[in-house]
Amino acid sequence: MTQVLIVGHSGALNKGCEALARSTIDIIKRHIAPSRIDLISENPQADRSNFGEDLPDVHLHPAHLNPLHKYSWGWWRHKFNVKLAQKRHPGLPMYHTQQHKALYQAADIIISIGGDTFSDDYGLPIEVFGELYQAKQVGAFTMIWAASIGPFKDEKMAQHWAQALRHIALIGVRENKTLEYLRTLGVSDNVYRVADPAFLLPRHAAPLVKTPNKRVVGLGMSGLVSRYGATQQSYIAAFLQFAEQLLEDAHTEIWLVAHVIAEGHNDAEVCRQLADSLQQPERVKLIEPAYNACEIKDVIAQCDYFIGARTHSTIAALSSAVPTLSIGYSVKAVGINEDLFGHSHYVLPIQEVNLKNLSDKFHLLVERRAEIIQHLHTRLPSIRAMSERSGVELAKAYQARLSNSNQ
Question: How many CB atoms lie within 10 A of CB 67?
């Protein structure tokens, strides 16, 4: 009887996180057939609404069990952890992680599915490393699942994280760039090349259906812009000009796809701003934020072209053989495109978003449409097999551990 605990999940208000969770759980079930799956989530309520009915056997737990009232014992413990313990030894379990120790102790396998959280993109990755530190403390088999890792900006911290990574039982990485980077850190013996599990995400029919004889261009706008050296104003202005250019063709519709609707970086707000500026509701459709990840994938799969900033919105498109321009803000976009195409011609760095570049890249997609579709149909079976490999390697490594412990 094998129990699996999944950590590092932000919640289904981020459709990429939902896609990761859904796909990962499906793969685990096929290869491990665990007796129980527990998922610690930053937003279990959103998960219940978006995929709870599809995965009723998954036990959801809030990442933060108790609110930290100012000057309470828990508040002081958290402050001590952040201000002192993490400074002396980055990557110790956070206070709210320690509160889940009983869940960790009950698990045979603990899997982190953060995607790109093992990087400096969101600040020091102390929380995700802390989760794996606690997993090792309780003696569980630990795995990082299909991740992008690094590059870490500070060399001293890179070596610190490398030491922690060497003690993980299994690390799946989803691009060659991550594989090569880990080798420079001396992390290789426990590393396997896989693909993002969301290439296996199923489509669920969405209420929105494409109008016959219309060309649909999907725009996956992102509210997460200023962090990467671009301004919200210039970003929206460029997409507004580009959308106006697209709408000069009477047979073109624009579908605005909000892939993250979490507080603080809500893509739907940016999409609404663009829709309000264009003032053509019959041809510019705002995709309802209430759609789940599988329904969003169905919407994106109906597009003739897709331009997206969120990684998993572009994976939904690419896995549906839709010609796609990735607005790149980290190593992920380049890595995924290079793995699929052998180049990054269909990537536009977020710092370079302007009307000319958007127009030039889009025309490249149009010119090469048939070639891109054919190439994706050829490549996708092997990519999906690489997504499945996470489960294959997990089953193999965990079985080897059981065999060794029984000898």
Answer: 8
